[in-house]
Amino acid sequence: MTKQLGLPDTPHPADNPPTVEKIELGQKLFFDRRLSINETMSCAMCHIPEQGFAANELRTAIGVEGRSVKRNSPTVLNVGFLDVLFHDGRDFSLETQYIAPLTSRVEMANPSAGFVVSMLNDLEDYQPLFNAAFSAPASLDRIGMALGSYQRTLVAAGTAFDRWHFGGQPNAMTAQQIQGFDLFDGKGGCTSCHLIEEGYAIFTDQLFHDTGYGWQREQERQNPPKTVPVELAQGVFVDVDFSVVQSVGLEKQSDLGRYEVTEAPEDLWKIRTPPLRNVALTAPYMHDGNLSSLRDVIEFYNRGNQNHPQQDQRIQPLGLGNDDINDLKAFLHSLTASNIDCLISEARILPPDNF
To answer: Are 290 and 70 in contact (CB under 8 A)?
Structure first.
């Protein structure tokens, strides 16, 4: 693949160079609902092409039989550039990342990874595809190689920011977007975590930080309101007693962030810095999807200190006015790739979910 303006070369593992056959197999696997225990869930059910390869309609993902996942579905656009995967960084490779959702009780709910391997080897439509890609039947490593090869093709590039910042096109961004970038890189302090390198920008340091958000959400979980607003129709809300809402669902789980991976006290509440490319397409926001809009996110950081002593010291009140917030929003919209429609149309070339 040709290098894209503003992005580094796509890294490929030495033992998994891309081929057309692997990519086509990986795409079929990504959209196939037969990979879940009751044949209802595919990878694409949570990473929806038309919704920024994320899920705009749900704060947190929903798995088999409506089981609740406690975290928001991150986009897989440009995921091939990331060294750490999941919000808590519990995996490091696309070749192995897929195993967790396949076997999670609240996601695809298969009893084991071996169960999926056996199922694929029994499906006549997959046998020639694995033979074409690997000259061998389905196996745990080959499934991962195919899925990884496909996901690395989801390169969303060609943004207004790239043309302006890296391409030397002064008119590629609007005056408001340029003012927003000045805030992003200056008063907002955003680039201290959402990095812009010399010749490219993934907009993440791929590190883990306690912004105070996780701690704040845990305080809210432990001290629920007496009533909660429920949307009956678009823009029509009614206050419902919290006990009624609680009676029809599972109790909300705590989320300790990176600590759940390392069990190191210093990792409590920490979450990986999300990359910001195409962020305007991937609402809702934060690791639990509780902030509905980019304005909500900017206002959270504008407020700053959450009275939580362990949070990153860079999280301080910013003093941004309404015009500043609008400028920052405009800049974030400049990070939307120009080839999104192409990626969506290419994703849907097979029959719906192969089912």
So the answer is: no
Question: To which CATH superfamily is domain 20-156+339-354 assigned?
Answer: Cytochrome c-like domain (1.10.760.10)
CB 278 within 8 A of CB 75: yes
**DSSP for residue 85:** B
Q: 215-218 contacts: CB < 8 A, separation 24 or more? A: 215/269, 215/306, 215/308, 215/310, 215/311, 216/306, 216/308, 217/255, 217/288, 217/290, 218/254, 218/255, 218/269
What is the spatial distance between Cα 324 and Cα 345, in angstroms, rounded to a whole number? 36
Q: What is the 3-state secondary structure (H, E, C) of 309-332?
A: CCCCCCCCCCCCCHHHHHHHHHHH
Domain extents in the chain: 20-156+339-354, 208-225+256-333
- The per-residue pLDDT for 353 is 61
Task: Decide: 22 and 153 in contact? Cβ < 8 Å.
Answer: no
Fold of 208-225+256-333: Cytochrome Bc1 Complex; Chain D, domain 2 (1.10.760)
Reported as a single tens digit per residue, the pLDDT across 148-175 is 999 999 999 999 999 999 999 999 999 9
Asked if pLDDT for residue 12 goes beyond 80, the answer is yes
